[in-house]
């Protein structure tokens, strides 16, 4: 392998590089081969002996023409004396080589290393990377789009480009695996395809991107590969890739890519089918939602109509208005041709249409039907049962119509009926029937309510007449009793004067009365006192009755004048001092300082305060207290309170204490009796003055609170009550 006369440097290099694992070629500047190992000769496709000592260009003249880059690199290394490399060279061997040119002394070392395995690994890595990108692109299209046509078209285009094929297509098959429809295909430019070539479905259109007549006729593909597409474990379609140039050998990795792609397409098909099913379900759901919405809107409209009828029943007592509103609402909301309401006369056995609302039907209002003439209808209605039917014999006015009859009934029986009339093809639904029944119930309530109202109005009128007669009687009796009671009081007064004169006469005659005369005289004085007290009570009763009647009728005038509470109230209390001391009661007066003047009717206010103090004295036991106090409240209102201890009024009695003729039972320690008109007069008078009064009682203490404005409530009005005062019966 070494020349016969090697130089010392070459001999040394040969000894040093005898065992390297790379091909080595040593060239002189003239390209003479001074050294070549076996591996290098193998890469050059020759033997060391055939090149040793010869010029490389002379022995292998084809190298500069076949590998100009090799020659150029060699010349550059000689000129620049700088190492250079070349990759992916095969020279005369099938291996892929890596060449390294290294200047050494005056020669050039060319190292040759086999990189076939690395290149194959790189190619496989790039292939799998491209395959993964393809599958990711298909997955992204599946996730981004639910359009199966777009997904299939993207798949055939990507796989054709990835495999560098002439054509890729997807077609569906039937149960016998026969093509039935071409779904997607991608072809190389200027490629003409025969429609019937395997495997194109029958009836599909030929693909001819360049249909110029001077092109050569189409030829069949020289090689193809197909993989099935399964769906639900059944063959759904086929993915096919075809090649028209030199016969191509399909590698297993390419087939695996097609199988992976077929799986992706199967997933896309399933996704599309699911989406289609979801869309169908959405359509069904939307239809149901629309139907439900329509039902809800209808229910809301019916509910609003029923509320209007119910409100009319609640707000009105006129059955005419209520039933007219009901038939109008029913005909309008339910879109009926007509609706009418009939009332029954059970004694006469008739049904009369009193209320009707028509839209497209002739009117029947006022029609009277004999129940015995239509037993099949009214027997069922009188049993509180509804029914619907379509007339067999056409009505002279309406023709063939569909009708719904619903009874109007309550606990007292059937009062009438509701009839709804529509065209013959209409069938009343269950919801409509329930709705009409609810409306009929409201109509029954309205009829019963109207009858009760009419009955109550008759009773009220009767009671008002009785009350008027009672007032007239009391007024008449009171006026009729005034003269005899006045005369009786005058007679008692004259009798007392006569007895007094008789006693004075006996005293002048110095006649000493006997014990019997003294006893008789004492009895006469006692009876005369009883007569006087009872006469005063009767006169007070008559005056109270007359005052109460005038106050209730608003016939008593008012005389407004200013009062100073600080001086006026002590005068009212002073008249009860002696009475309180006699009954061992303590009377207190508390008046807030600087109270302003009060403008009111003096007589009525004095009557109120006097009655409250009189009641306090009457119902306060010995040793207890009576207090009258006055103070100013916000908003210019005067408060007067009369409080007594030792007695309690129950809550039930407090509710009736201002009623006429009401007296608290077993609550009169002094046994004075009374008419029960005093507090009723107090309430009427305080209302007449524009004030208010209330009572509170607990813990053996009772308080009457009176509130009045400093100015009468009519002070800013021009139509204030008259100031005329009617005189009472003389006392």
The oligomeric status of these chains comes to single chain
What percent of residues adopt helix (DSSP H or I)?
40-55%
Count of DSSP H/I helices: 18
Shape: elongated
Distance between the termini: 173 Å
**Structural class category:** alpha+beta
- Major beta sheet, strand line-up: 12-11-10-15-14-13
Mean pLDDT value: 78
- Beta-strand portion reads 15-25%
User: Can you tell me the residue ranges where pLDDT is under 50 for at least 5 consecutive residues?
Assistant: 194-217, 717-731
Rg calc = 64 Å
Largest sheet at a glance? 6 strands, antiparallel
Count of β-strands:
22
Protein model, in words:
The protein has helices at residues 8-16, 38-44, 48-51, 56-59, 62-66, 68-80, 116-144, 148-163, 252-315, 319-333, 375-381, 430-508, 515-553, 565-574, 577-582, 602-619, 651-656, 678-688; strands at residues 23-27, 33-36, 84-89, 97-104, 107-114, 167-173, 179-187, 223-231, 234-243, 338-345, 350-358, 368-370, 387-390, 401-410, 413-423, 560-563, 586-591, 598-601, 625-633, 637-645, 692-698, 701-709. It is elongated. It is of the alpha+beta class and 731 residues long. Residues 194-217 and 717-731 have low confidence and may be disordered. 24% of the residues are buried. The protein has 18 helices and 22 strands. A six-stranded antiparallel beta sheet has the order 12-11-10-15-14-13.
Features:
single chain; 731 residues; alpha+beta; 6-stranded antiparallel β-sheet; 5-stranded antiparallel β-sheet; 18 helices; 22 strands; 47% helix; disordered C terminus
């Amino acid at each position: 392998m070494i020349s016969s006369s090697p130089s010392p440097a070459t001999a040394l290099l040969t000894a040093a590089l005898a065992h390297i694992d790379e091909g080595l070629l040593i060239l002189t500047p003239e390209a003479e081969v001074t050294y070549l190992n076996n591996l290098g000769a193998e890469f050059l496709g020759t033997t060391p002996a055939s090149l040793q000592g010869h010029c490389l260009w002379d022995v292998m003249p084809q190298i500069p023409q076949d590998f100009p880059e090799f020659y150029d690199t060699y010349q550059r290394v000689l000129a620049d004396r700088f190492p250079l490399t070349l990759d992916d060279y095969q020279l005369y061997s099938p291996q892929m080589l890596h060449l390294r040119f290294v200047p050494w002394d005056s020669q050039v070392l060319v190292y040759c290393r086999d990189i076939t395995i690395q290149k194959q690994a790189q190619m496989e890595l790039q292939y799998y990377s491209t395959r993964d990108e393809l599958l990711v692109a298909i997955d992204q299209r599946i996730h981004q789009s639910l359009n199966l046509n777009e997904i299939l078209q993207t798949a055939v285009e990507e796989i054709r480009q990835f495999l560098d094929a002439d054509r890729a297509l997807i077609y569906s098959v039937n149960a016998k695996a026969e093509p039935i429809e071409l779904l997607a295909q991608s072809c190389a430019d200027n490629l003409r395809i025969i429609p019937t070539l395997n495997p194109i479905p029958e009836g599909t259109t030929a693909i001819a991107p360049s249909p110029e007549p001077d092109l050569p006729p189409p030829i069949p593909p020289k090689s193809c590969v197909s993989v099935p597409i399964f769906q639900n474990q059944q063959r759904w379609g086929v993915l096919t890739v075809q090649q028209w140039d030199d016969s191509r050998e399909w590698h297993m990795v390419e087939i695996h890519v097609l199988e992976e792609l077929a799986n992706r397409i199967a997933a896309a098909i399933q996704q599309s089918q699911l989406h289609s099913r979801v869309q169908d379900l959405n359509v069904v759901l939307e239809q149901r939602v629309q139907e439900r919405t329509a039902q809800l809107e209808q229910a809301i409209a019916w509910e609003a109509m029923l509320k209007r009828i119910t409100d009319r029943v609640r707000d009105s007592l006129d059955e005419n208005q209520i039933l007219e509103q009901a038939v109008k609402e029913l005909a309008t909301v339910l879109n009926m041709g007509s609706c009418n309401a009939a009332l029954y006369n059970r004694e006469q056995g008739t049904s009369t249409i009193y209320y009707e609302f028509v839209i497209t039907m002739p009117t029947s209002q006022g029609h009277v039907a004999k129940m015995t003439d239509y037993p099949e209808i009214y027997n069922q209605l009188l049993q509180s049962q509804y029914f619907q039917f379509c007339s067999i014999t056409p009505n002279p006015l309406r023709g063939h119509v569909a009708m719904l009859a619903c009874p109007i009934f309550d606990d007292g029986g059937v009062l009438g009926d509701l009839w709804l009339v529509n065209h013959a093809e209409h069938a009343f639904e269950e919801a409509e029937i329930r709705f009409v029944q609810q409306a009929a119930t409201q109509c029954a309530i309205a009829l019963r309510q109207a009858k009760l109202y009419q009955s109550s109005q008759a009773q009220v009128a009767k009671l008002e007449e009785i009350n008027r007669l009672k007032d007239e009687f009391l007024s008449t009796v009171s006026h009729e009793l005034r003269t005899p009671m006045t005369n009786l009081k005058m007679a008692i007064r004259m009798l007392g004067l006569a007895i007094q004169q008789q006693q004075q006469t006996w005293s002048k005659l110095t006649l000493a009365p006997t014990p019997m005369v003294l006893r008789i005289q004492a009895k006469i004085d006692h009876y005369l006192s009883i007569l006087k007290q009872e006469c005063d009570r009767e006169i007070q009763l008559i005056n109270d009755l007359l005052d109460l009647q005038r106050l209730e009728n608003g016939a008593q005038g008012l005389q407004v004048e200013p009062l100073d509470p600080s001086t006026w109230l002590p005068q009212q209390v002073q008249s009860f001092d002696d009475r309180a001391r006699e009954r061992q009661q303590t009377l207190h007066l508390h008046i807030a300082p600087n109270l302003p003047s009060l403008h009111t009717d003096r007589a009525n206010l004095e009557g109120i305060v006097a009655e409250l103090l009189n009641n306090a004295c009457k119902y306060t036991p010995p040793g207890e207290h009576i207090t009258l106090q006055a103070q100013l409240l916000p908003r210019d209102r005067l408060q007067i309170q009369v409080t007594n201890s030792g007695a309690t009024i129950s809550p039930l009695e407090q509710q009736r204490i201002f009623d006429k003729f009401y007296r608290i039972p077993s609550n009169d320690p002094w046994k004075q009796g009374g008419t029960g008109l005093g507090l009723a007069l107090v309430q009427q008078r305080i209302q007449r003055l524009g004030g208010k009064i209330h009572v509170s009682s607990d813990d053996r203490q009772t308080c009457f609170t009176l509130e009045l404005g400093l100015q009468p409530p009519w002070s800013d009005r021009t139509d204030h009550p008259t100031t005329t005062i009617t005189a009472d019966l003389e006392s």
